[in-house]
Amino acid sequence: MRIGEVAQAAGVAVHTLRYYERIGLIPPPRRSGSGYRDYAPSVVERIHFIVNAKQFGFSLSEIQELLALRDGEPQCEPAHKIASERLRELDNQLEELGETRAALYELLESCSGAEDTCGIIEQLEEQNGG
Fold first, then answer.
1. CB of 11 closer than 8 Å to CB of 50
2. Contact 20, 26 (CB under 8 A)
3. Kindly report the CA angle at 50 between 17 and 15, in degrees rounded to 5?
């Protein structure tokens, strides 16, 4: 399959395929006599795996590890460890977002709606040492 065909079948851009190839997420394809990339049809499934993993928020290095597990003897324990770490990261992000959300509510409460002064601007100036 040519690069455009793979990109269309996998639902990604051509430059994404080239990037994945450059960083080793997909194997380098054979080259035709005229230099065109000639991908095996199985690369589409590999790209779907990558896209699915990205939707769960896995980093490219984590995806590389998961692909290695997929390509070898599938092992649940290392995959479980990677997914558990990702879940911990998400929990931390959610906690931080909750704190930011609460702080933003407090910031909004500081705004009286008066035209001559703005509590939001004043609070932000105080936060920056202004």
1. no
2. yes
3. 15
Structure tokens at 5: 């065909």
What residues contact residue 65 under an 8 Å CB cut-off, 6+ apart? Answer: 78, 82
CA distances from 125 to 1, 69, 89, 107, 122 (A): 58, 51, 31, 12, 5
The tokens for 35 are: 């230099």
Spatial CB neighbours of 115, under 8 Å, sequence gap ≥ 6: none
Question: Tell me, what amino acid is at 34?
Answer: S
pLDDT tens-digit readout, 50-103: 999 999 999 999 999 999 999 887 788 999 999 999 999 999 999 999 999 998
